[in-house]
Write a structure and sequence with these properties.
- InterPro entries: CB, Integrase_recombinase_N, Integrase_SAM-like_N.
- The protein is mainly α and 167 residues long.
- It has helices at 2-11, 22-26, 33-40, 45-65, 74-84, 90-106, 118-131, 143-149; strands at residues 153-154, 162-163.
- The chain is flat, with a radius of gyration of 24 Å.
């Protein structure tokens, strides 16, 4: 793992999101071409975009306050997510932790990943408990509702039930 970290530091600025920086992947001589290709495709493009924005927010926060972003201390991440929780939803905070964790993992800090420790996990649990994470969806359509709507359905052909235009 030390060699992976050396490759990381030779090719990257800590501000970069590791999975976006192709030099990091390309310069790792231990990876086969197939492995390099798969590593670049390990996350969906939209996920990478969100993670990259989340990482840059964390990096800027660390820079502003004089903390090291990579590798980060668990206390740094806890302070960051508690600051973030003042204005963000619990799911946003959770996604930010995922982005920070992914960047540490891809940068060679999987075993020393500060996001996996109890300090960060407990802080996230407290934020989820305080803010709640329940997504409020619409009420389900009940059988009674269908009975009320049944006069508006053409039931003569069960295979092609369509809503009558009088609805």
């Amino acid at each position: 793992m030390i060699q992976l970290r050396e490759v990381f530091y030779q090719t990257m600025d800590n501000k970069d999101f590791v999975l976006r920086k192709s030099n990091f992947i390309e310069n790792n001589e231990k990876l086969s071409e197939k492995s390099k290709k798969r590593m670049r495709k390990s996350k969906a493009e939209n996920t990478l975009r969100a993670y990259e924005a989340d990482w840059l927010d964390f990096y800027d926060w660390c820079t502003h306050l004089g903390f090291q972003a990579l590798p980060a201390e668990p206390e740094t991440i806890e302070n960051y997510i508690n600051d973030l929780a003042d204005n963000a939803k619990a799911n946003t905070v959770s996604r930010r932790i995922s982005a920070i964790s992914e960047n540490h993992k891809a940068g060679g800090y999987e075993d020393d990943n500060p996001c996996r420790g109890g300090l960060v996990r407990n802080a996230l649990d407290a934020i989820k408990r305080e803010k709640g994470t329940i997504q409020r969806g619409k009420s389900p359509l009940l059988f009674e509702d269908l009975q009320d709507l049944s006069p508006y359905f053409d039931t003569s052909d069960i295979a092609g039930i369509e809503i009558k235009r009088s609805c």
